[in-house]
Amino acid sequence: MTQGVTGTDVAKEASDIILTDDNFTSIVKAVMWGRNVYDSIAKFLQFQLTVNAVAVTVAFLGACIIEVRQLLDIFIIQGVTIKIGLFLNSSAFLSS
Question: Are 59 and 71 in contact (CB under 8 A)?
Fold first, then answer.
């Protein structure tokens, strides 16, 4: 990350993020945004791994025990809960 006004050309070429102003609050906001993106990705990956592990288990047990219609209902419920979780997480980010 480099400052756009007072930053050197070498620093601007080497950095991934160039701020348009030299205001310190812009740097703080950029760092907070980056941390939030990282945290959101980590939460999403943890949730996906958990859901996929449960889905494989349910599919395996479902093939042995229950009917196909009941298995379809379970997968629809899982899809809805994923969308609700992502919506709630994104709306909390937008309000801050």
Answer: yes
Q: What is the pLDDT of residues 51-66, one digit of tens each?
A: 888 888 877 877 777 6
Distance CA 74, CA 70 (A): 6
Comparing 69 with 51, which gets the higher pLDDT?
51
Q: What tokens were used for 20? A: 């348009």
User: DSSP secondary-structure letter at 4?
Assistant: T
In 3D, which of 45, 80, 46, 74 has the Cα closest to residue 61?
74
* Contact call for residues 18 and 7 (beta carbons, < 8 A): yes
Which helix or strand (DSSP H or E) is residue 3 part of? strand 2-3
- For residue 12, the one-letter residue type is K
In DSSP terms, which residues pair with 88 in a beta bridge?
none
The CA distance from 5 to 67, in Å, is 65
